[in-house]
Structure formats: C-alpha cells, structure tokens
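step=encode ok
step=design start
structure_in=
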C-alpha cells in the first residue's frame, strides 16, 4: 500500500466514523495497516485499494472495529461480506486467467 492511498484511507476512516481529533493519526494509520494486512491475507491476489471498493469498505470497517477494541466482532458481523468479496476475487481471477 502506497503512502497516498494510506493517507486517503486514514482521512476517510476519520471522516466516515467521526473519529475525534484527539485520536492521533498514527493510531489510525496502524489500524489501517493492520487491517490491510489481514484482508490481504484472505485472498491470493494483490488488492487494488483504489478500484476495489468492497475491499476498501471492509478495510475501513475493520480499522474502526480495531480502534474501538472489538476486532472479535468484525469477522462475525462482516463474515458474509468477506466471503462474498473473496468469492468475487476468485471469479475475477479465473476470468482473467482464461483470457490470458
């Protein structure tokens, strides 16, 4: 993940989830990086954080759960969306492989 997308995601998490200004950006950066690593580990291909809006939304939601110390609830609450996203990534990869 490059710095430009990282900054965008931190800004989006802060705005979308109304993170108060007394929470330092470093804390949000850490939550975003940890979330990106976790989501990247769930699929075999690289995630395009600019174009994959589902991955982006999952990352922001997971970062929010992390900031609120309830990560154990994230995969329970978002399990269906995570599996649908994973399946979509597999289908997209298969279609790409067929056309190569």
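sequence_out=
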């Amino acid at each position: 993940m490059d710095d430009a997308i990282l900054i965008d995601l931190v800004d989006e998490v802060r705005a979308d989830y109304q993170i108060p200004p007394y929470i330092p950006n470093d804390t949000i950066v850490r939550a975003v990086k940890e979330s990106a690593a976790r989501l990247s580990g769930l699929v075999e291909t690289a995630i395009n954080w600019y174009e994959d809006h589902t991955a982006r939304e999952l990352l922001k939601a997971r970062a929010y759960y992390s900031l609120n110390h309830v990560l154990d609830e994230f995969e329970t609450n978002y399990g269906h969306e995570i599996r649908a996203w994973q399946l979509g990534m597999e289908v997209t990869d298969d279609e790409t492989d067929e056309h190569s």
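step=design ok
step=annotate ok -> The chain has four helices and no strands.
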